[in-house]
Amino acid sequence: MDNRINEIRRKISALRTEMARVENAMRDQIRRDLDSTESALQLMAMRTQLAVLVAEWRAAGGSEALPSIQERLKANNRPPQKPKAPTRR
Fold first, then answer.
1. Which tens digits make up the pLDDT trace of 5-16?
2. Is the pTM for the entire model greater than 0.85?
């Protein structure tokens, strides 16, 4: 069952990444005063798909809080920097 939960989490993660890409494309279309209907419809379909995946995840026993896109972007996933050696004079 744990493999199923991890598989669903991977799908959710990939879908969120794709949703962010579509949102950026839609914003770009709006900035250039282009029709963004297709992007908006695609994004709404992705949100429906995300809701289904979250329901499957919860039914499979997933219980930890899923991070939002903003939380994921704020997370510092970089390796810690090594302290710089003091320069000698």
1. 888 889 999 999
2. no
